[in-house]
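Please review the protein record below. Let me know how this chain folds according to its tokens.
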Amino acid sequence: MRKADLTRDKLLDAASVAFCTLGYSNASLRAIAKAADVDVALISRYFGGKLGLFRAALESAFEWDEILDAARDPIEVAIAKYADAGTEAHQVSAIRMIVMNASDPEVGDLLRGVLREKLIDPLQERMGGRQAASQLAMFAAVVLGASIVRQTLKLPGMAGVPDAEYADQLRYLINAAISFDGPDA
């Protein structure tokens, strides 16, 4: 791998951590460059600035090809990704990116647009049917909500339970959400 590619990857990794833990507005370019052990000017060179760096981190966070794979069950993919609370993937993830940045006035609309383009619209098309939008919205609400309850609020009953038990809880909640059959959406 070329040095330029390694530098770009280091910046993207450091930015992903910063945007998932601090949010866009609180993440500093100097701190990101320091964490990547590179000169801050390289952010402009490779990404055009903070917004370009955020966009790249966002694209990376929402790159979730396995959930869009028709041969795989999206429920089991989500459970596998989020049931192991100790994984690095859980700490820097689409969920954390959403939670930390969706309400940011500078990047909230961008985040929602990339989320729809990369995950929501393809999953809705894959699901099909008259209730696909409602079921997918509830699927997202369950995964986001359960993650917040376990990782952020650390509520007993979800936090601290073995990963296999949490996987069963998540599976139950997701199945309930996607079995919704209300009025046409």
Summary: The CA atoms of residues 67 and 74 lie 5 Å apart.
